[in-house]
Amino acid sequence: MGDAGVTWAGTHAFGAARLVEAASVDDVLRAVRTAPGRVKALGTRHSFNDIADTDGTLITVTGIEEQPLIDLTSPAWPTVNAPAGMRYGVLGRWLQKRGWALHNTGSLPHISVAGATATGTHGSGARNGCQSTALCRIEYVGADGNLHTARAGQPGFEGLAVGLGAYGVITEVTLSIQPTYDIRQDVYTGMPWEHLLSETPAILADAYSVSIFTTWTEPTVQQIWRKSGIGLDVAPPDEWHGAVRSPESDARLVDGDPDALTPQGGKPGPWNERLPHFRLTHVPSNGAEIQSEYFVPMEVAGEALAAVRALGERITPHLLVSELRAVAADDLWLSGAYGRDTLAIHFTWERSPEPVRALLPEIERALEPFDARPHWGKWHSFDAAAIARVHPRIGDARDLFERLDPAGRFVNDYLLRVGARQAR
Prior knowledge:
There is one protein chain. The protein has 424 residues and is an alpha+beta fold. The protein folds into two domains: 112 residues, Uridine Diphospho-n-acetylenolpyruvylglucosamine Reductase, domain 3 (2-Layer Sandwich); 186 residues, Alpha-Beta Plaits (2-Layer Sandwich). 22% of the residues lie in helices and 24% in strands. The strands form four sheets. Strands 11, 12, 13, 14, 15, 16, 17, 18, 19 and 20 form a ten-stranded antiparallel sheet that branches. Strands 4-5-9-7-8 form a five-stranded antiparallel sheet. Helix 5 runs antiparallel to helix 6. The chain is globular. The model has no long low-confidence stretch (mean pLDDT 95).
């Protein structure tokens, strides 16, 4: 191992020979131009596999601290420019102070905007696309060591948006924004599993953002977090889909600090303090975990959940919690929601690598009839052939990356394994 350390949860030790901590775009330009061999960008280290690793030089972009810039002149929508390594929680606070908002956030506000969009990270909401759908512009240092700009509407932009770090080091992104809005977060318990299996799409579409938590073997769903837009959704009822609303902010999923969670109990607040599950000021957990996630068409949500639940006795002993979310369909080539409204089935595992590694192929076989796609930044066992079966545009993406990086400077073992780059 070089001096690059480990991922946030300690699930992968970086093997890079060199680490460059960039404090400016000029630093990135210089590093790419002078680095021997291969290069990869590194953000907030919230991936769980080797997607961001290299045997060459890692360039961290979290030290680039340029201020965001709002542009109200765009003919389509207002936008904000943000440095690649800025955390979503920091950008959210900055936007909220100025009366603006993003359409959604992931569960963690600690992740970087470039890393999250490059892997198709998402929140929940049947009408909300993944974080990458907000991208309007990407600025990156390419294999030639020069600064390049890609804009929405240009040929190939849909392939670059969820780009897996396969074509360059992103230095800045431009995201669409909207006027700020308030959200209330209510916790429900006691929903029968039978009702969830028969009504999954309706439940997940019944508020701005809905997250369902389970450990798979309980007779009723563990918890549901219903995040309603003030003035956008109807007021949450006391009883909903067979579940009962908790009047207090007392949700607790696994052992940890309950104060780390964003306010619940129906108290309205700004979007950036309700849509994430965790507060920016708190560590969301002790990090001793492994994460996996699979995306299936929403139209087969009930069948897919039943297939996973049939493995519940095998899953539960190694599981902290699972979360079920909705993601709206998009046209981004490597998005988990490409071309289809999507159910995201997430697993937060105990950090027990061998049992988890043995379980993943079983879960993937159970979900294979539903064309499940893995989250790029989390644990999975998909190889290039398996990816090709479920990602119809992987060949187009690979061709695009090869044109932009013909010498393979941004190739790594992960990209080769999933078929996103060609071997040399």
